[in-house]
Amino acid sequence: MKRRTFLKGTVASGMLSVAASAGLLTPRSVLAAWPETAFAAKSIDDALNTLLGSTTLSESGDIKIKAPEIAENGAVVPITVSTGMEAESISVFIAKNPSPLACSFALGGSTQGFVSTRVKMGETSDLIAIVKSGGKLYSAKKTIKVTIGGCGG
Amino acid sequence: MAKKKIRIRAKMKGDVAEVKTLMSHPMETGFRKNKKTGEKIPPHFIKEVICEHKGNKILVASWGVAVSKNPYLSFKFKGAAKGDTITISWNDNKGESATADAKVS
Q1: Any chain A CB within 8 A of the CB of B97?
Q2: Any idea what the CATH number is for the domain that residue A125 is in?
Q3: Could you read off the pLDDT of A38-96 as tens digits, one per residue?
Q4: How far is CA A26 from CA A20, A22, A137, B56, B61, in A?
């Protein structure tokens, strides 16, 4: 027990120092290193703050989430997020997952506001799409019912 | 023949290049248990996917364990033409990586 906590402590502090040196703790570096802290965050707000530097969201009707109303298999839920805005990034959060941040996409200058992928959902939950455009964060959400959870076990 | 790690389909639709890609990867969450030993199967997932075209990063995806096994990804961008090369690479939490390219049709 003692050994495990000791090791956990070392690994945790080790990761933090690596994160700090890799510039992960600086805000607004979407195209920089993999956002470890954001992916580990247990709340949407924490993940938003770490990933995008803010929790201020404006709901937008210009973000479309295409996803099934009911996902038969929570391990493979196909989703498409699209927007007509000039998007710098699109991030997907699944509210009830153990770690809400599922994926984030940094888009190049000539890349359209469109991403399609498949995600795991542990249970019925809101899927929240955040689009960063013009330095501001816009959001849309869709409730997806899950019959068989996809997180594991 | 070895299974291809990254399959890419890139097609021009008007002036937009539509890219669809399928990657072979377990995307293990770390929550599953080995049914025989009862031990947790450690996480093994793609962290980053980078798509490049003419030296430009078209898209950089940051992924966590919530992306499904054998991930599918599709995106669109302007500025490409038929015959151009698209390169897609990924790296995962175990330090493994793969890369593949395809021509836009």
Answers
A1: no
A2: 2.60.40.2470
A3: 999 999 999 999 999 999 999 999 999 999 999 989 999 999 999 999 999 999 999 99
A4: 8, 9, 18, 24, 19
- Structural domains of chain A, count: 1
Best residue of A86, A116, A117 to probe chain B, by most B CBs closer than 10 Å: A117
DSSP assignment, residue B17?
E
Q: Which CATH superfamily is domain B6-103 in?
A: Immunoglobulins (2.60.40.10)
What tens digit of pLDDT does each residue of B3-59 get?
A: 679 999 999 999 999 999 999 999 999 999 998 999 999 999 999 999 999 999 999
On whether residue A104 sits in a domain, the answer given is: yes
Domain residue limits, chain B? 6-103
Which of B16, B29, B63 is closest, CB to CB, to A112?
Answer: B16
Q: What is the ipTM of this complex?
A: 0.95
Nearest CA among A66, A67, A48 for reference residue A121: A67
